[in-house]
Specification:
Rossmann fold; 28 helices; six-stranded mixed sheet; 674 residues; alpha/beta; five-stranded parallel sheet; 11 strands
Length: 674
């Protein structure tokens, strides 16, 4: 279907009877029109939105009916379609009805795991050369064949072209991709429904975390075109080049992530193996990667020696290795040579495309500051964010044209604002200006759009603006697990936990050991009332990082919802004070009828965190059925620009407020639907 905003009006000739349902993303409408015209010239009636939606009819219901009554589906597959949750719903619905699917691929964008799952038996036609008209005769024949085929029998592949990731299409079992039914689709409020959440929800787990004991995926589920880049080892004499070794690995990972058709495992998951000695075959299996890159760095005052190698994770075979020994001021050349060598090796092994990426920075000194900044930001504390901001500013002074440095400077400034280390106005506005600077340097910077989306969400509460920036970020970086996961979590203000869960599990397919995604998935399950699944996901987050911020707080809420207040109290006691421990204790003690202890915990929270956790204090008062106090603290959260306030709609702890007229009035003040 063509995607549109909340105000989109259906027009057309009505549903009627038809043979073919055409599924497409709106940027591919011209191709869809051409496909429909070609098929209808040969007597095959097609249905496509918005052309054939009955005026005034419920958009989603019309689409469901059209899919159900079709005899076959033609999918216009592109990067836009691959990142569209609405196209995905249509394909899932068609698959559930056992309809044959004929796919016309118009570009070589990689497929998300869930698309592979539903398309692994479909017919494929390749029109990625730019001229779809040449494929029309084959398309007509493919549709004719599909209509003749028994419904329960998958059609044979029409050509040798296959999905971008060969092998089994299902994601690793531990990430359990959840796909929602098209029946639940509601297009009212569609534009606001697609907000992008702030980057603080994708903060990488610190390197010192415990590795999750998640079961490894079966060998057949690991895509052949998948790779993980492990942190490089610092072999320098003084062991003072960790920042440089980590940065080298991160930049190579970022460069490889630009290769079409290659799934690159997220940095958070790959860096779980820092300073560990597991067998590379086990690492590849745990991460769901067919290939692993590892390396080492030895740096002195005047020389740099970098060794990198590409290893087949299935059997541990060494497919490529190289050592680079250069003057220290040639570090940019070394990085480019490593990336080029890896691409050549990948071309041989998995058919990767050319990288074609320009050098990161023009100055080796600026690059050194940049790497120090990336290393500092990973400390995830006040000192780290402040140091990162300083390093990035120094790098920009030396190389004002560096887009990547501007992007990361905006990110560091955003984190300082979100974590409350600077006043909201100062921090968010500074991040806004830097993100805008990055966009002036590069108008297609997905990261800059993501930062602006975060500011619109957390600080401005400007949902249409956030929606626009979110869409820009997703279009530019559809394979970035942070962007995908954040877009999923952004559904939470609009009470769409299943849709949120589906996108977060997609992010987990790319970054399976990211505690953030497991925690957020647990929250979505909690909001959906799927308490056993919520509990399991939160335990996974704590396996990855036993001290994961707020994981105990949310796990305690799940246990309370399950009717286990004693267990909830034990869990709440394990949370750190800065992440809601006293709020959790206040509600757990209240559930146990221990009023005095609940009062003391809430008093501590109020005394110590009135200026930065007004929303949590409102949650506790609401749970205790103290409605006037809850609304008073919500008003304080509004004035303080509490970054958690976007979470209000559908929050189970605020259930006692929902029948009060003040609650709906507050939602209106936040520009949220009632």
């Amino acid at each position: 279907m063509a995607e549109g905003g909340a105000g989109e009006q259906a027009t057309g000739a009505g549903s009627g009877t038809h043979d073919i349902f055409i599924s497409y993303a709106s940027p591919n409408s011209a191709v869809a029109d051409a496909v429909a015209a070609a098929l209808e010239r040969h007597g095959r009636k097609c249905w496509m939105a918005p052309r054939d939606v009955t005026p005034g009819a419920h958009y989603a219901s019309e689409i469901v009916h059209a899919i159900d009554s079709a005899k076959a589906i033609v999918l216009i597959l592109s990067q836009d379609a691959a990142t569209s949750p609405h196209v995905l719903r249509e394909i899932e619905r068609a698959t559930s009805k056992r309809h044959p699917i004929v796919t016309v691929r118009v570009d070589q964008a990689p497929l998300p795991a869930e698309f592979e799952y539903f398309l692994n038996t479909s017919q494929w036609l390749d029109a990625s050369g730019g001229d779809a008209t040449r494929m029309m005769p084959k398309l007509v024949e493919a549709v004719k064949s599909a209509l003749k085929a028994p419904a329960a029998t998958p059609a044979a592949a029409l050509t040798s072209h296959a999905p971008a990731h060969s092998g089994s299409a299902r994601s690793p079992k531990r990430t359990a991709i959840v796909v929602t039914s098209l029946i639940g689709l509601a297009l009212a409020g569609f534009a606001a429904d697609r907000l992008w959440l702030s980057s603080h929800r994708t903060a990488s787990t610190p390197a010192s975390t415990k590795l999750a004991s998640a079961p490894a995926p079966a060998a057949s589920t690991i895509p052949e075109k998948s790779i993980a880049v492990l942190p490089f080892t610092d072999m320098s004499e003084k062991k003072d080049q960790e920042y440089f070794a980590d940065g080298m690995a991160e930049e190579i990972l970022d460069l490889l992530a630009k290769l079409p058709g290659i799934r690159v495992i997220g940095r958070t998951s790959s860096f779980q193996f820092k300073n560990k000695t597991e067998d590379l075959r086990k690492i590849g299996s745990t991460l769901g990667a067919a290939y692993v890159v590892e390396g080492s760095v030895r740096r002195s005052s005047d020389r740099i020696r970098v060794t990198a190698q590409l290893i087949g994770a299935k059997d541990g075979s060494h497919l490529w290795s190289e050592t680079y020994d250069e003057p220290s001021d040639d570090v940019l050349k070394v990085q480019d040579r490593i990336a080029s060598g890896l691409v050549r090796a990948l071309q041989v092994t998995v058919g990767a495309d050319d990288l074609g990426t320009p050098p990161l920075l023009k100055s080796s000194e600026a690059y050194d500051f940049y790497l120090r900044g990336r290393h500092a930001i990973d400390q995830w504390d006040r000192a780290g964010f402040e140091a990162a901001e300083g390093y990035f500013q120094q790098a920009l002074e030396l190389d004002p044209t560096s887009v990547r440095t501007a992007e990361w400077l905006a990110t560091a400034q955003l984190y300082r604002a979100i974590w409350g280390f600077v006043p909201p106005h100062e921090g968010f506005e500074r991040a806004r200006l830097t993100a805008q600077r990055a966009l002036k340097l590069n108008p297609i910077s997905g990261t800059a759009h993501a930062v602006l989306a975060s500011i619109n969400t957390d600080y401005d509460w400007d949902w249409p603006a956030a929606d626009h920036e979110c869409e820009q970020a997703l279009a530019l970086e559809p394979r970035n697990p942070n962007v995908v996961g954040d877009a999923g979590f952004a559904r939470s203000p609009f009470a769409q936990p299943d849709e949120s869960a589906r996108l977060i599990t997609t992010a987990l397919a790319l970054d399976p050991l990211n505690g953030t995604w497991h925690e957020l998935l647990g929250q979505m399950r909690y909001r959906a009332g799927r308490l056993a699944e919520a509990e399991a996901e939160l335990h996974k987050a704590l396996e990855i990082s036993p001290a994961y911020a707020e994981a105990h707080f949310f796990l305690g809420q799940v246990l309370l919802a399950k009717g286990e207040p004693e267990a909830a109290l034990v869990v709440m006691q394990q949370e750190v004070p800065e992440s809601g421990r006293d709020t959790g204790l206040a509600i757990a003690y209240h559930a146990l009828g221990r009023r005095a202890e609940s009062d003391r915990a809430l008093a501590r929270q109020t005394k110590e965190h009135a200026s930065d956790s007004a929303y949590e204090i409102a949650q506790a008062h609401s749970y205790r059925a103290e409605l006037d106090e809850a609304f008073a603290w919500l008003d304080r959260a509004y004035i303080q620009k509490d970054v958690e306030l976007y979470w209000i709609r559908g929050d189970p702890l605020l259930k006692n407020l929902e029948g009060d007229a003040r609650y709906k009035a507050f939602l209106r003040k936040m520009n949220l639907p009632e």
